[in-house]
Amino acid sequence: MICWRCWGVGALLLLVGCAGLPREESPGSAVDAAWQARRQALANFTHWDLGGRVAVRAGDSGGTAHLRWRREGETARIDLFGAFGSGKVRIWINPNGARLRNHENAQFSGDSAQQVLLEGTGWHIPFDHLGHWVRGLPGPGEAVDIEIDAGGRLARLSQSGWDINFSQYDRFNQRELPRKIALQAWPGTVQVMSKQGENLGDILRVKLFIEYWNGPPVVGETAQ
């Protein structure tokens, strides 16, 4: 009888002791929590002034441009300097569509920046989704594949006919954002034509290198 009582008291103490131990969070759940917090914070980040370089390549043909992208909510202006051999290109975006003006003052209007860029320069850049991808977020619609790194950041994404890889992040004014992004179109997503009308195929690669996110640095400004 005494032995049973001792076992009962011991079991009760064991249960109480276990109940008081802190529960460890698994690494997977910690990464997911960090990703969800990042995703929510970046969804509200819709005002920026970023600059950098963009390169496109299809087959043996390609081109580069300097990029400046200023966005305020649903309106934006994109400037491409030396745009793929076509001089300066400016694109205005608003909820009603997009408009492009090239260095010869020719203008193109359409439903999206992606459409007018294709008409004005012959090159594809998926600006329709890039406003999300450039922040390290999936775009609207279903993503086929998402890979999150150990820091809770988007590392790889497949969506809307594109594979997107985020090879480098950096801190810009206390906010961690992508610096290097590489995109590749799936076969059949795009059809690239040269200025001479030559079919360059459907394997298109786009690379972005972002130099700043909050306006160009002031000349002589001390790095923080």
Task: Explain the overall architecture.
It is a single chain. This protein is of the alpha+beta class. Helix content is 23%, strand content 41%. It has an eleven-stranded antiparallel sheet, covered by helices on one side.
Observed structural traits:
outer membrane lipoprotein receptor (LolB), chain A; eleven-stranded antiparallel beta sheet; alpha+beta; 224 residues; 4 helices; disordered N terminus
Secondary structure elements and pairings:
Layout: H1 2-20, H2 27-43, E1 47-58, E2 61-72, E3 75-81, E4 89-94, E5 97-101, E6 107-110, H3 113-121, H4 127-133, E7 145-148, E8 154-159, E9 162-172, E10 175-185, E11 192-193, E12 199-201, E13 204-212
Antiparallel strand pairs: 1-2, 1-13, 2-3, 3-4, 4-5, 5-6, 7-8, 8-9, 9-10, 10-13, 11-12
Quickly count the helices: 4
* The CATH fourth-level homologous superfamily: Lipoprotein localisation LolA/LolB/LppX
Helix content: 10-25%
Number of strands: 13
Number of domains: 1
What shape does the CA trace take?
A: globular
Low-pLDDT ranges: 1-25
Give the overall average pLDDT: 84
- With strands numbered from the N-terminus, the spatial order across the biggest sheet is 6-5-4-3-2-1-13-10-9-8-7
User: Roughly how many Å apart are the termini?
Assistant: 73 Å
One letter per element, helices H and strands E, the order comes to: HHEEEEEEHHEEEEEEE
Rg for CA atoms? 25 Å
Secondary-structure content class: alpha+beta
Sheet having the most strands = 11 strands, antiparallel
CATH class: Mainly Beta
Q: Give the CATH topology.
A: outer membrane lipoprotein receptor (LolB), chain A
